[in-house]
Protein 1
Amino acid sequence: MAFDTLQTADYSPLVVHFTKGPQKRMVLQEQISRTNPLFVYRQTSARDRLINILKMRVIYASPMPFLPTEQRAVCFTECIWEGLTSLADSYSPYGIVFSKRLIFDAGGGPALYLRGDLLQAFGGDIPEQLHAFIAPFDPDGKNVKSGVRLDWLHEREWRLGEALKFDYADITHVLVESNRDSAEIVHEIGAQNLPDSKVIPIEVYRNIRKAWSE
């Protein structure tokens, strides 16, 4: 069975790239140089970032923090739906969904969660081809950056070490905050490019969860 069609309760054949507003940015602003295509979007909201991505049909690679080398990557999560809604609270409810096969064929794959002490010991000797995939794992905040707890295992991350260029047909779904977002973004991108059946408003799930918990 192909890796992108396996069906189990804790596995998804899909990955999501969440957009983030300036208040949620993990990347230090000074890492984005004026020549970087991301520079003009540094203060853009998560919603507008999503719209820009959909219009340009490209996700640019961002500098990765806490690595010994200057490395850029596009980040995704393979979390199942319950995990995605939790990450939407942490980052934003705006994201774009692709198949794992698309990302794999573009050169991406699962992140390599590497112990902080090993990263410090062997950082200079780690093959360059692996740099984009490394996610430091330092839950005690002792090795990579003193006092900074690095534990992103719950994000079940995938990485791509270069910009992702895609066609509208490559989009599996788009995540948005509200029904109003859905209508407005479909109108702006065009229903022929982004049918409303592909757009999932997170507020619908939140309303269902709230109703069933009361």
Protein 2
Amino acid sequence: MKKNLLIIIPVYNEQNNIKPIVLKIFKEIKRKVNILFIDDNSQDKTRSQIYLSKKKYKEIYLIKRGSKLGIGSAHKCGLKWGYLKKYKTIVTMDCDGTHHPKYIIKMLNTLKKNNFDIISTNRFLKKNSLKGWSLWRKYFTTLRHTVVKFLLNINYDSSGAYRCYNVKKVKLNHILLARDNGYSFFWQSIFLLNKKRYKIFEIPIYLPPRSHGSSKMKLKDVVSALFYLLVFYFKNH
């Protein structure tokens, strides 16, 4: 029998965000749901917090990885697990408090009612959706969105990780065509899935600053992502 809903949450040093995200998910979603954490060998008490949540909720699972292999790699790992376990719907999201679980129900309802294949969130459909962010983060996020949109000729907010997949319609091997294991996995996968003519729909989202801890994206990640984007662009044109 196919399972209903899986939420995939990659984590690295998110000890203070595990309990809040778990409580919010089970509060917002009034249906059977499983949570899969993918931990890239966190150096804090992230795993301990997950184990504490597992004692309370049997619906929580954990994949432990031996090193920090990249956010894109973590999403691929979780998606492979979810497809293998035959879930009907898979949602991917961040653990840092920026992705509120209240949007999951909207994504699920939109997916079902309108027969879409993928529902993604967009930070640029409403004004002040990045309220509270630092000027540097706002500038970088907007710049990245503009550059990707221009080079790849796609209108989606393609660098976001908050998505919902209709497993019955979206082939796993098409998602895995996105080779990058870092942050570029997100725009690359949307670009390739769009080329495969999947029906992708976006819903607006407000994105507050992270609740605890610091961003995992460093300057080297920004430079690497830009270089990868340019290489990908010239290879495909």
Protein 3
Amino acid sequence: MMKTTPANPASIPDSILSEWQSTVDIMATLVGVPAGLIMRMVQSVIEVFVSSQSHGNPYVPGDRELLLGSGLYCETVINKNKKLLVPNALTDEHWKTNPDVKLNMISYLGFPICWPSGKPFGTICVLDTKENAYSKTVEELMLKFRGIIQTHLELLHMNQVLGEENRSLSDYLAEIQTLRGIVPICSFCKNIRDDKGYWEAVESFVSQRTEARFSHGVCPQCAREHYNFELEETCMPTPSDPHP
């Protein structure tokens, strides 16, 4: 794999990364393998996101490779969105030349990790230097660990959604706060006096303080008074503008 400098994306807080590190460390220890990994997709690249701190683990966080056509075990897991078990790549014509064999990782068990939307995040997997068929108990254990990770992703997604909603609400409240209080407006021309004592049109006053924009027209009452013609009504009549 190509080497890169590992980075913590803004979407995954350090507190959660710490829990994921503990997860892969425990997983590698319980399964008895040199490598437990959480792999992550970044556009067209797949990278080692979290790697167990176990003896003999050749994978380093930040190692990455182009996903498409890489021949990696994880490419198949992501593309097919299902479990992959390779007990011994050296006896499997399809897997005996895959890149991980060069690292002496000849057995593999991996599961896909997805965002709440179903979009792939990456994989959780274990690898061994010897033939290993992995038991059903190991599979169930890894599915439990995957569930924890996907729960974290769901919480992160919901926090992002709520954060965007709160920002929208804050913007709305800020606009309301801007227009609160007594607004000094001229009784004749309807210009508004700002806090520096200057008079400005109501459109200018509101536009500078909110995201509102104005579109000018002529109401039916003004059409009668100023232009001496009837304008077709487009809304229900009000007390100030009754039907003739």
Protein 4
Amino acid sequence: MAGGAIPLAGCERIISRVSARYGESIPERIGVADGATIDPAFHLLSRAAYGPWPGDLDRVREMGGEAWLEEQLAPETIEDTSCDLRARRFETLWHDPGTCYEYKKAVLREEITRHTILRAVYSKRQLFEVMVGFWSDHLNVNLEKGDCIYLKPSDDRLVVRTHALGKFRDLIRASATSPAMLVYLDGKENKKSGPDDIPNENYARELMELHTLGVHGGYTQKDVSEMARCLTGWRLKTKWGKGAVYFDPQLHDDGEKLVLGQIIPAGLGEQDLERVVDIVCNHPATVRHIATKLCRCFISDAPPASVVVRTAGVFAETGGDIKSTLRALFTSDEFKSAAGAKFKTPFRYVVSCLRALGADTHAHEGVVRYLGRMGQGLFQYPTPDGYPDREETWLGTLLWRWNFALALASNRLDTDGIVLQPSAVSIDSLARAIGGAEEKGLDPSRLVPHFIGRSPTPHEIGPLADYIAANGLQDDGHKAEFVGLILASPAFQWH
């Protein structure tokens, strides 16, 4: 085992060195916020990205927030070579489901988890990655159910990542016949082979309750039953081409249906699915539900009704165009005034720590383990609603956040000594880049704004000054602990 890990570690060290040449290093000089309130550029990077990488704040300030947003809304135009070096080597993410059955579950779980973390940390297409996370929870698939672990890699690539910034209707249509979703919500069991067969209603119910209309969207049990009839007959191959989706007309209920007040005529066969997707994606309740959920994710746990209404209007007017909807949300006054109002989920917290430090990681077990301890093991949420993003859900994770912050800053995330360990790059380099005399580089009044986007209050600076007075910052251990305390601070838990 060790013999195989040593060459891998060497490969990862090479990737780290090459990545630095593509901009994954800390610039010689970086600016920080200097006001009492959170800098607008920092706020944008904290929500539309997973937090600023050293130097990002200067870039957004220079080009302007709206220009940066437009750039992010066209991710295909953003060169992402350094991220690709780290993330593209996980081969199971590129296979079809049938090939994934040839791998052990542990390999599949590790690769999709590490790939997701590395894309979030290093991609320059930050808004795209944020939306990948949003839709992954919205269309949650738990790896641990049935064969989902073999099917989720293609779902991640062909459903979520393909449509993350596209049209909502295309996203829902792709998800409806995703092999992973057909297994997770039992769509492949939904059939009518005889007059006494009762359709499986699981996917039909979640399609309306979670994916489109919302729990208060006005649908009835009759709508669930009728929609389930429309969705009969979609199957997965079990031998040749294992995991591929096909439609079996012999298992489809081809009679007339009435869904949400609209008649679906008899005899349409697999086109019933297209009619269902059109009906739910164009429903006014869906417009409200998706707009509300986006505003709750990016503005506050209880977003103002005004911005929900405007966001919903753009969503409806553009036929569910996700880019246009996000543009309206991020340029709204309500967004601009909501800085620091969201409590970070564990995933966002971990990734924002790594990005703030300009960390060099290959997302091995040390990082993954802490995410699990904080309660957000990737692709492992047990129910179809996906991980929540509300404050009250995550307040109980603070102890593990503090432990992670100190372990990361001190380079103690891994202990096996074989693979390249996730580690913060030189804290001294970060401090020097922030500016000022080198010997004052760890002055908290200069360093803290880099992490929280504003000048610290006297109440916030006091404990850090006390730490310096008691311990000094002459050795690497105390420097690391000092930075760990900033990452563990209440101000850094919010974004």
